[in-house]
Design goal:
five-stranded antiparallel beta sheet
Length: 184
């Protein structure tokens, strides 16, 4: 069986954990032209502190073939690759009351034999008490980060049932998907 784990690392989660209880001043991202997405990065500014949500591709096994797969990370450093990006600013000026990390578990079966066990971070939801800010990874390959403001934003994420059906699987191949939410 092939095991793939592209969830946020312990260091990434520690950076997010340190933001709980602090005021999010603003986020900086690509201008929304046709969709509410930012390519490769979102900068989060909390007073004098800042960190980046990155989505960069790496070559990985994608159910039997090698593909460029977007992998998320949370870091305090700016990569030279994005230094020349022209960000727009969305102000918040709100205290972060909690952060939820949405983890997805995907299992692929050939008849009854499990062939893949995959974990991926599907999204991050920042709670402000009465509303939320969410970042979602829309698909495996995309470096885009979907950004939403509102309420009950996990309901806006692509349903796991659609993810299981998205693959062009042979008749004997099935996929099971589930989600867990880690609250910081």
């Amino acid at each position: 069986m092939v095991n793939i784990d592209v969830r946020l690392k312990k260091e990434d989660i520690q950076i997010l954990q340190s933001a709980v209880g602090k005021k999010l001043d603003r986020i900086e991202h690509d201008e929304f032209v046709f969709t509410n997405t930012s390519s490769q990065t979102v900068r989060l500014v909390l007073g004098d502190e800042l960190f980046y949500l990155y989505s960069f591709t790496e070559p990985l096994d994608y159910y039997g073939t090698e593909e460029d797969v977007a992998v998320w990370s949370v870091e305090e450093k700016e990569y030279p690759l994005i230094a020349d990006k022209s960000f727009v600013t969305t102000p918040f000026q709100e205290k972060i009351t909690a952060i939820r990390i949405v983890q997805e578990h995907q299992m692929l079966f050939d008849n009854a034999r499990q062939t893949y066990d995959v974990w991926v971070t599907r999204g991050i939801i920042i709670e402000f008490g009465d509303h939320e800010l969410a970042f979602e990874k829309p698909v495996w390959f995309s470096e885009d980060i979907v950004i939403r403001k509102g309420y009950d934003l996990i309901e806006e994420f692509q349903p796991v049932e659609e993810i299981c059906k998205a693959g062009k699987w042979k008749d004997e191949i099935t996929m099971e998907c589930s989600r867990e939410v880690v609250i910081l």
